[in-house]
Known about the structure:
Number of strands: 8
Largest sheet: 5 strands, mixed, barrel
Distance between the termini: 42 Å
CATH superfamily: Nucleic acid-binding proteins
Radius of gyration: 23 Å
Strand order of the largest sheet: 1-3-4-6-5
Structural class: mainly beta
Mean pLDDT: 80
Shape: extended
Amino acid sequence: MNLNKVLLIGRLTNNIESRTLPSGQAVVSFGVATNRTWKDQSGNKQETVEFHNIVAFGKLAEICAMYLKRGQLIFAEGRIQTRSWQGQDGTKKYRTEIIMQNMQMGPKSAGNMVVNETGNIKPAGTNSRNESIPVVEESEISQNEEEINVKDIPF
């Protein structure tokens, strides 16, 4: 069994480049930077940055074009794909990209949103930092409510 799955959390390095394919399908591309920090043998802090090319199609691409901006934090899920083409100078060129299938936008005051490749948008969680989950105490439940009789359930 094979698996081609990528999970990235990083920041957009540029604004979205939006295009439309001849078929009419929307496509966007943008860069995401991820970093890694560690201490070397002498105890000095080291950091490297990797840059990733991201591509999204369809409704997901339209949502990216509307909401994503340079510097924004993003969680991207997708697969790796390398494509090749003939350059103008006659040499063969390669580009490795992440074809995004799901995305979660970074923190905002309205809360995070999760978007999948079909364009469905839903809250990332049931709670944001500004909200609190109401707690219902057992004593608040009305004692006058009728008990449910198992024999009354039709299935």
